[in-house]
Every structure is written in structure tokens, then in C-alpha cells.
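Entry 14. Ran structure prediction on the chain below.
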Amino acid sequence: MNNYTKGKWYWRTDKQGDPYNLRSKDDSQGYKSDSHVLYIADDFSGENSLCNPNDANLIAAAPEMYEALKDCKRWLFYMKASIPLHGHLLEVIEQALTKAEGKNENNNIRNT
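Output, C-alpha cells:
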């Protein structure tokens, strides 16, 4: 999954401090970019569709967690001879990565 928006994700908030615009700052290509990732609009009832700040923090941390989980999987794979009871952990990591990559048919929003 290399097509996700790279960079550090952060939220812009409204005057009340509620998150509404997820952005990405990235300078890995030698230039600084600030790009749009997700915009939260009011739903049909006028309520914000994402109002829990804890969810917003989790979403913003997703790229770093994804890359860290891939690193953990590689490390555990190479260390499997010296860590005998890691099989379940590797399975859980693989399930999470499969879901994040849209390869899980039950949770696939769209494969691009």
C-alpha cells in the first residue's frame, strides 16, 4: 500500500476546537507540501460526523502506526527462530495490515 497520502497528518480545527480538515505535511521529496486528506462536513441533521477528538487523534496517527507495524512485522519475521511464541502476534499484525491495505473483503472500502 504505497498510495496513501504520505507525511505527518494533522487536523485543522474550527473555533470550538473540533477537527474538520485532515491535512498532510510532507517534505520527503525535497519540497514542502501541505495537502488535503479528509474533510469532515456536517451530516444531514447538521451534526458533525466526526466529533470525538480521540478518533481524530487515532486517524491522524494512522500513517506512522502503519509504517511502524510493517517494521514490527519484518523484525518479528526475522526473529522468529529466537522468539518461539510470536506466531499469534504475527497473525494479528498481518490481519491489521491486510485491513489497512484494503485486502480484507469484509472491510474493504475501495481497492485503488
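The CA atoms of residues 66 and 97 lie 7 Å apart. Will compare against last week's run tomorrow.
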